[in-house]
Write a structure and sequence with these properties.
This protein is an alpha+beta fold. It is 44% helix and 27% strand. It contains eleven helices and 14 strands. It has helices spanning 45-52, 70-79, 88-112, 118-137, 144-171, 179-198, 204-207, 210-225, 239-268, 273-302, 338-344; strands at 2-8, 11-19, 23-32, 53-60, 230-236, 308-314, 320-331, 354-364, 375-383, 395-402, 405-412, 415-425, 431-439, 444-449. The strands form three sheets. Strands 5-6-7-8-3-12-13-14 form an eight-stranded antiparallel β-sheet. A four-stranded antiparallel β-sheet has the order 1-2-9-4. A two-stranded antiparallel ribbon has the order 10-11. Helix 2 packs antiparallel against helix 3 (88-112) and helix 3 packs parallel to helix 5 (144-171). The longest helix has 30 residues, at 239-268. The two termini are 21 Å apart.
Length: 452
């Protein structure tokens, strides 16, 4: 399961539900309009990869709203009233993270759905949310350190619940007979806000400043996700090969130059001005061809081979739970696989596009996963702000007839990017999707699936 959405003004977010399958392959091609004139000379591949792509992999339960660790966690928290469990923080993070991700998925599903049974879907969401939060808050620890950790998790979970219900109230289109649902959503949001105020989770200075509140909640989200996130440790492949290639090319070029120097010495006899001039010319040619030869041979040797290798490490057990190989290249349309070209629907104009291709292949070891979690979830973020300097900030005039008069309207310049994704999980059939990303100089305007 894969979906693409907008994380913020300049970041595309690709979310992949990998399940409990041990092998996964992923291919994403971003088609950049030719008018931006993107080339490796303008923005190097390595720079784009390191600055423009962020990958985050976490544990993920297959349950939608009920955490798999719920019953085990409740029993553990009950025992901790008398004797704190050293695994308390992990249990709290598992519980909170499962609730948060489930709430976000459920809200996204409701907003994207057909809304034929809106009352039933919202009713189920509200009931499950209330039940899970009630069970979480029923077992508040008394110990100072554990109480502080509980406060941080409960603070974020409450704020997230408020934000998600307000999002539903703001973005859903309610019929006249459904306005009570909108009022109910806002009432729950007010209740969560009052809950945090009564417990003094946030100072008045933070509560009254949206920026401070947002920054604090972002830090609490990182605290929540840390125990269920996998540390990603990687190396760049081919460094030794590159050194050996550089040494080999230098040896060959120097041998040729030395041979030519000796032949020149034999031909000219004594060291003269002409000999020195020929010698300088030979060394200049050596410097000119050595770098070009190294570059061409290196590109030939590394063509189609992965550029980075990563390990996924469980932050709790420090065990390696998976590995991944990754590719990143600028491609021409003609060099893409047939199924990618077919999904893009090639035309003459589209063949002028620059294609940014990211690929990954990973193997996971589900037997080493955290107890209660058999699957993983991967989030890939593309930073489109790296392409902003290539865009035109100006507007252009558009004329139209209105009531017999000619009117002029200044229209902003927009750029349409196409994103084609190809995913294979386990032995399943490849899933190919295309997304249309509309962007101007200031922000990403929309992200929507496309079939045309």
């Amino acid at each position: 399961m894969l979906h693409v959405d907008l994380k913020d003004s300049f970041h595309l977010r690709i979310t992949r539900e990998l399940g409990d399958f041990p092998e996964h392959s992923f291919d994403a091609c971003l088609f950049v309009p030719g008018e931006l004139a993107l080339t490796p000379e303008v923005l190097e591949e390595r720079v784009f990869y390191q600055q423009g792509i962020q990958i985050h992999r976490t544990y993920q339960s297959t349950a939608t709203l009920e955490p798999l660790v719920r019953s085990r966690l409740i029993r553990r928290m009950n025992r901790e009233k008398g004797r704190p469990d050293p695994q308390y923080r992990l249990s709290m993070s598992l519980y909170g993270f499962q609730y948060v991700t489930a709430m976000e998925q459920a809200v996204h599903k409701i907003l994207q759905g057909d809304k034929q049974d809106l009352r039933g879907e919202l009713g189920e969401l509200i009931e499950l949310s209330s039940t899970i939060l009630g069970r979480l808050r029923r077992n508040r620890p008394e110990d100072g350190t554990l109480a502080l950790y509980f406060t941080n998790i409960d603070n974020y979970v409450s704020w997230l619940t408020e934000q998600q219900f307000l999002k539903l109230a703001a973005e859903l289109e309610f019929q006249e007979n459904e306005l009570d649902l909108k009022e109910l959503l806002m009432r729950i949001a007010r209740r969560e806000s009052k809950y945090r105020d009564d417990l003094e989770y946030n100072s008045a200075r933070v509560s009254q400043d949206s920026i401070r509140m947002s920054n604090k909640m972002r830090l609490l989200r990182r605290l929540l996700e840390h125990p269920v996130s996998m540390r990603r440790v990687g190396i760049e492949l081919g460094e030794r090969e590159q050194k050996l290639l550089r040494a080999g090319v230098t040896a060959v070029v120097m041998s040729c130059v030395s041979f030519l120097v000796l032949r020149t010495r034999d031909a000219l006899g004594d060291i003269t001005a002409i000999f020195l001039l020929v010698l300088a010319l030979l060394y200049a040619v050596r410097e000119l061809f050595r770098e070009d030869l190294q570059k061409k041979l290196w590109n030939w040797l590394r063509k189609g081979r992965p550029k980075w290798r990563y390990q996924f490490i469980d932050v709790n057990s420090e065990q390696t739970v998976g590995t991944a190989l990754e590719w990143f290249d600028y491609k021409k349309f003609e060099d893409l696989p047939e199924h990618i070209r077919s999904a893009r629907h090639s035309s003459t104009q589209q063949r002028e596009e620059t294609v940014i291709r990211f690929r990954s292949y990973s193997k996971m070891l589900p037997a080493r996963f955290l107890s209660g979690y058999a699957g993983t979830r991967e989030t890939i973020t593309f930073d489109m702000s790296l392409l902003q300097p290539l865009m035109n900030q100006s507007t252009y005039p558009l004329y139209k007839l209105q009531d017999g008069q000619v009117e002029r309207e200044d229209v902003e310049r927009r750029y349409v990017f196409n994103l084609v994704t190809c995913e294979r999980v386990g032995g399943k059939k490849e899933s190919i999707q295309r997304w249309k990303v509309t962007m101007n100089y200031s922000r990403i305007i929309s992200v929507e699936p496309s079939d045309t």
